[in-house]
């Protein structure tokens, strides 16, 4: 760890990441490319002229901070003069090229597309394409061109507190606009220039077709597609939930785990080459070729390319014969990937992969040596378990932050699945190859399907042990950072139990406790009134300290899960529910009047009220404003949009603030 802290590429990574975050969230660089390249040239010139070691080091750190800013600026299509949004209007004829086939929603087929032409003007930029579902319509293919005549629209931000921010997620993928079209509102133009990704997709479809000619069960074939081809779109929600609850969801995504297992197997297979002259170099070249062939078969998705790049560096680093080189290789691959695509930094899979590998490299040996077993069989399984524990420590805070649950039996599921996963992968590759060649024996297909079914059955059994699944865990951003500070200094203390490192470790515990106490104090001081947005329903909440009371008019509480659960977890509060039976409420001496479909508002002592319009009341808004003189008028999702538009115009005319939750999100009023 000490050598890592003195490893310059590690510091370059830190300043590069800092620059990426600064540019993405603050957008401090808004100048043109001429100034941009001039500053790069000036930096490099000064670095070439300065010979003082410390000054040159600090200038290099500053340069890589600027490189982080530059990489975000260069990779943002919106900064270019031919960005498609500069040319599109309501009647534009747009040519789209399919870049990626996404998982469909309930009503739409979804694609990531490149906007290559608008009204005969060559353009650039990514967009989200939504096509109304049609059971008779064939799915578009990667690299296919289509012509549409439609309008781009902004991607909606979440309308309730702590809901998943799909707008932010897509922005981090380089997508800011989307387009909706009907099933017959586009014209197929054939294929454009074929890309490597397109050829990979075509080969993957060919493998899938060959496997589908055999009598595999539905859950068997979808797991095979996920394990071998990185194709998860057809996996049922129930099967995904089983793997998630069992702590084995990473098995269904071709990522670092799969590539790492393949790397280990390839090292053992080609180990005989090390006995020959230059054998290690030949071994490494063969391993790299096979790894990238696997990436091609898996469709060259971003997660696969990242994983293969990371393990390619690790494979090269192993030639030096030092365990410390693994850390250097890890950060070198991180540095290279972020230079070429800084938005990888905000991908959940990217973050989890690197933290898992970092955990294994830095902690696995320490965990493994906690116990000693004379039995080789027990020792083998303990070694596998120590890898799983080290990886879990590395990703645990981030997993809790994103997914809010912890599978208590992850230890058992990984101890059983990971030792046989290498065999399952290699057998799957053999089965796929024989299937492509049309010489797959039925007994071998049946055997492989039986093994996959056994794995699915085991995962389902683990998933059903709900007593060991902890859900709705709340972890704030600051608690996330404090947790990793604790892990960092804890690892350093375990590696060298000096007094100084013990004090730093104890200090990190104090920091974690301080964050917990501060958040607890802040939570107990909070009082809040919320009007949630729920289509065709009325939902309001009164929060006092660590509890919130929800008043609603829905028939089933399950309808409120998507609205209330994110708030419950994000704010770490207890929730109670009540049917909405009153039209008048009070929050911190502020009267709140609800005008529902009955249209009753002529009540005493309600001047300057907060007025909430629900269920499309048929009232004369001007007369109501004159009678009550409300402080603000709020319309929730239970109202007709035609009514809302009319109320908005009237409120502006009467100079009364108007708030529609369907546009601005949930209304929140705090003490």
Automatic annotation (TrEMBL):
Tell me which GO cellular component terms the UniProt record holds. plasma membrane
Q: Which residues form the signal peptide?
A: none
Q: Where in the cell is it found?
A: Cell membrane
Q: Which Pfam family is one of those matched by this entry?
A: Competence
Q: Which UniProt keywords apply?
A: Cell membrane, Membrane, Transmembrane, Transmembrane helix
Residues annotated as domain ComEC/Rec2-related protein: 227-494
- Primary residence: membrane
Tell me yes or no: is Magnesium among this UniProt entry's keywords: no
List the membrane topology term(s).
Multi-pass membrane protein
DUF4131 domain location, by residue?
Answer: 34-185
Protein name as catalogued: Competence protein
Q: What is the lineage of its organism?
A: Bacteria, Pseudomonadati, Bacteroidota, Flavobacteriia, Flavobacteriales
């Amino acid at each position: 760890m000490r050598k890592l802290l003195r490893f310059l590429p590690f510091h370059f990574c830190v300043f590069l990441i800092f620059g990426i975050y600064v540019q993405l969230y603050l957008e401090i660089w808004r100048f043109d490319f001429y100034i941009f390249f001039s500053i790069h040239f000036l930096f490099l010139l000064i670095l070439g002229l300065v010979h003082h070691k410390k000054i040159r080091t600090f200038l290099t750190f500053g340069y890589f901070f600027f490189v982080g800013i530059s990489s975000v600026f260069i990779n943002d299509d919106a900064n270019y003069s031919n960005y498609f949004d500069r040319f599109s209007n309501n009647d534009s004829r747009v040519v789209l090229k399919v870049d990626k086939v996404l998982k469909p929603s309930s009503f739409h087929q979804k694609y990531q597309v490149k906007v290559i032409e608008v009204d005969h003007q060559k353009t650039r930029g990514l967009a989200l394409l939504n096509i109304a579902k049609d059971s008779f319509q064939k799915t578009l293919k990667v690299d296919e061109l289509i012509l549409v005549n439609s309008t781009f629209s902004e991607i909606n931000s979440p309308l309730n507190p702590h809901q998943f921010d799909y707008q932010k997620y897509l922005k981090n993928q380089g997508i800011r606009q989307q387009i909706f079209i009907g099933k017959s509102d586009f014209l197929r133009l054939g294929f454009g220039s074929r890309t490597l990704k397109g050829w990979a997709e075509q080969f993957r479809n060919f493998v899938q077709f060959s496997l589908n000619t055999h009598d595999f069960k539905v859950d068997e074939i979808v797991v095979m597609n996920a394990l071998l081809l990185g194709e998860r779109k057809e996996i049922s929600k129930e099967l995904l939930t089983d793997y998630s609850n069992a702590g084995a969801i990473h098995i269904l995504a071709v990522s670092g785990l799969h590539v790492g297992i393949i790397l280990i197997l390839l090292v053992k297979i080609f180990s005989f080459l090390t006995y020959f002259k230059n054998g290690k170099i030949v071994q490494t070249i063969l391993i790299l070729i096979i790894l990238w062939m696997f990436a091609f078969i898996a469709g060259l998705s971003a997660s696969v390319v990242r994983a293969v790049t990371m393990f390619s560096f690790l494979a090269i680093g192993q030639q030096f014969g030092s365990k410390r080189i693994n850390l250097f290789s890890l950060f070198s691959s991180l540095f290279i990937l972020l230079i070429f695509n800084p938005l990888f930094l905000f991908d959940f899979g990217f973050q989890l992969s690197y933290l898992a590998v970092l955990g294994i490299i830095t902690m696995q040996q320490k965990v493994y040596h906690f116990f000693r077993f004379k039995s080789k069989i027990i020792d083998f399984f303990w070694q596998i378990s120590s890898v799983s524990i080290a990886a879990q420590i590395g990703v645990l805070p981030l997993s809790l932050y994103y997914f809010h649950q912890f599978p208590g039996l992850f230890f058992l599921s990984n101890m059983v699945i990971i030792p046989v996963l290498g065999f399952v992968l290699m057998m799957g590759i053999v089965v796929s190859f024989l299937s492509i060649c049309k010489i797959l024996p039925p007994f071998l297909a049946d055997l492989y399907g039986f093994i996959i079914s056994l794995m699915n059955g085991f995962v389902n059994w683990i998933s059903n042990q709900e007593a060991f699944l902890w859900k709705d865990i709340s972890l704030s951003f600051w608690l996330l950072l404090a947790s990793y500070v604790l892990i960092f200094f804890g690892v350093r203390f375990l590696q060298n139990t000096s007094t100084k490192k013990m004090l730093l470790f104890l200090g990190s515990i104090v920091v974690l406790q301080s964050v917990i106490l501060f958040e607890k104090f802040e939570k107990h001081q909070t009082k809040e009134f919320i009007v949630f947005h729920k289509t065709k329903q009325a939902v309001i909440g009164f929060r006092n300290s660590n509890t919130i009371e929800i008043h609603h008019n829905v028939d089933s509480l399950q309808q409120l899960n998507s609205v209330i659960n994110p708030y419950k977890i994000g704010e770490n509060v207890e929730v109670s529910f009540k049917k909405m039976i009153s039209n008048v409420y009070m929050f911190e001496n502020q009267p709140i009047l609800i005008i529902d479909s009955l249209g009753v508002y002529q009540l005493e002592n309600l001047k300057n009220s907060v007025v909430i319009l629900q269920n499309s009341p048929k009232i004369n808004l001007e007369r109501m404003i004159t009678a009550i003189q409300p402080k603000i008028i709020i319309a929730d999702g239970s109202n007709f949009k035609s009514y809302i538009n009319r109320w908005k115009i009237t409120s502006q005319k009467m100079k009364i603030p108007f708030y529609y939750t369907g546009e601005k999100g949930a209304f929140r009023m705090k003490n």
